[in-house]
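Exercise: predict the structure of this protein bound to 2-acetamido-2-deoxy-beta-D-glucopyranose.
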Amino acid sequence: MKLVQIACLSVGMIMCTSVRAFSPSLQSRICNKAVELHATSAETEAERLRAKARELMAQVKQQEDDLHNNIMAKKRSRDAHIDQIISELFPTNNEGDTGDLVSRLRNKRLAAEVLVQIVERLHQRTRVADKKEPELASCTDQLIEAAAILDQEFVNQKTRCGDKITHADLVHWGGGNVSGILKDKDKDLAREYDEQFQKRLESFYDAAVKKHTRDEVDSRGWMDGDAWKP
Ligand SMILES: *[C@@H]1O[C@H](CO)[C@@H](O)[C@H](O)[C@H]1NC(C)=O
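Solution:
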């Protein structure tokens, strides 16, 4: 039932109840008139509310779009920054050896967090649909290997100087276990990706099964165009 109808009904009932008390015969005539009058103003009010609601929805939508664009712009600029570091660390599409990478890392003194971002970005870039760069996959392994060498240097130096590991050491150098942090990140990302892949596979089957039996889909193959249509 629409808002207007509810409004009319309740206005009608109130009028009818009070009128009935003194003159039952007049009841329907007065009642209809009252319902008509109130219906017009209720409709206007409902229209006004609907317009207001539309306006608010448009505002919310705009804010969401702005926020989304803002987040995307930030991500793009962070990606560009990380891509720049990646191209400096792996200048010849990763043909150099790990020793070279270690020296570059040593010079750059990158924080553990930046290295984690590099691993994330390498994962993304090996997987984006439009421009896959599978050759980058080995960069992650090499980065982990190089980080292990630097971890060892860090621990050796701490031991030699009898220094304690400080909070800053933990944040910046991962407490001498940057390679462990990167390895964990690499594993997490691989697992996430597998799970997402599995989900996509399932939804493909769900969509396909609506059109065909599962066996049919299996035997006719994945790329059966018909199965992709919703
Ligand atoms: C380094 O990190 C890895 C992964 O989190 C962990 O398994 C390993 O025990 C850590 N090694 C040290 C020496 O803390």
